[in-house]
Amino acid sequence: MTGHPGGGDGPAGRLPSARLLAAVAEVVAARTGPPLELYVNIPFCATKCHFCDWVADVPVHRLRTDSTGRRPYLDALCEQIRFYGPVLTRLGYRPHVMYWGGGTPTRLEPDETRRIHQALDESFDLSGLVQWSMETTPNDLTDEKLATMRELGVNRVSIGAQSLDPDQLRRAGRGHDPAQVLAAVDAVRRAGIDNFNIDLISSFPTETDPGALARTLATLLALDPPHVSVYPYRATPRTVMAMQLDRQILRAWDRESMIHSYELAMGMLGDAGYHEYCHGYWVRHARHEDIDGNYKYDLSGDKIGFGSGTESVLGHHLLLNPNADYTGYLAAPREFAHVERFSLHRPQRLTALVGGALMTREGVDYTRLHTLTGLTFADLRRTPHFAAWLALLAECGGRFVEDDTGFRMEVDTIHRAYITHLAYTMTHGLALGRG
């Protein structure tokens, strides 16, 4: 590995926090009030969904543990927050947006949620937050939890519905039924949170009824949700569904069928007055956009992920805490499991960042990419990795436009290129990630 903190070539891996922060401070010294995304990972769920890559490395018994079992994780999480918050504040960082994901943050009881928020509030100046989003599954919401979220300042909720077809939900390992999705939407609105998203997945391998997605969309659109996300299914290694595909227990959709499924969603959402501001993200009004998503995909600034299973970008450094290193995180929450400085020696580390930007209408902004990573797009595209990857995207149907300020994909080619690439990566790798 290359690109260790401080520059030059050398192995990446664990690095004492003092050396890491010194290297970050050197990079951000010239910036004025750099923005920061706060991400909090809650790696607990009611069920282990068959398609979800976020918890693929988490044993079921730990995923479903109770508040007693969660306490060591919350202890480590709050320690990490209280260590890094004041230091990053002194370096000039100011939180712009906050997102709690996982896992399922609403698995936590209200007192657990308050405890984490207290650590954040005591460690950062949260007055500049423009949006605080929290993920939930329909079966984990209660009026008490929603009241706590509202009280603390959550102003956006993302509801993981995925489908309203009961057979598809069962075969995907979901812990909720269609009626709970509708009840969750009603509960969020009654709690006074008027900005929420509903997550759906198209071209599920378990989707044997071609009309299921259309019926799901028709029912949900009748509820007038502010935001809808539609993700074409992605087979991720180690997930149950990917293993079922490998063993031919399930059959993946072919590329054209995957495209047709997504275009069906595009047509229904467009007819209902929604527009797509980033691939898969649909709103009627700009005020309901996912600002966290915009921040990441627009390459707007640094981010810190608290907890296991997180990724951070600070001062041209990539910091990882894999879910597989859960026990290591509990033992040393101040030290990241993997640290490396972005480098042309390992350009694949930037594939997800650039890939996320190419799913937006604006594409890759050269100045923001350089500020975020310390590397130029011109240098990146000359590496064999990026040359091959961009050529593959072109073969998948992407048409590129470039000027002095940036590089983007023509909007009407994004969905076809992305889905064709997904179909390719199910057997070949080299994935285009969401960042």
Would you write up a description of this structure?
- The chain has 435 residues and is an alpha/beta fold.
- The chain is built from 17 helices and 15 strands.
- Strand 10 and strand 11 form a beta hairpin.
- The chain folds into two domains: 280 residues, TIM Barrel, CATH 3.20.20.70; 91 residues, Arc Repressor Mutant, subunit A (Orthogonal Bundle), CATH 1.10.10.
- The N terminus and C terminus are likely disordered.
- The strands form three sheets. Strands 7-8-6-5-4-3-2-1-9 form a nine-stranded mixed beta sheet, with helices on both faces. A three-stranded antiparallel beta sheet has the order 10-11-12, with no helix packed on it.
Label this structure with key terms:
9-stranded mixed sheet; Arc Repressor Mutant, subunit A; 3-stranded antiparallel sheet; 18% strand; 4 iron, 4 sulfur cluster binding; 435 residues; 2 domains; catalytic activity; TIM Barrel; alpha/beta
Quick structural overview:
With 435 residues, this protein is an alpha/beta fold. Helices cover 42% and strands 18% of the residues. The chain is globular.
The CATH topology of the largest domain turns out to be: TIM Barrel
The number of strands is 15
Provide a count of the helices: 17
Helix content: 40-55%
Low-confidence stretches: 1-11, 429-435
Biggest sheet: strands side by side, in what order?
7-8-6-5-4-3-2-1-9
Q: Quick one: CATH superfamily of the largest domain?
A: Aldolase class I
Radius of gyration: 21 Å
Provide the β-strand percentage band.
15-25%
Distance between the termini: 21 Å
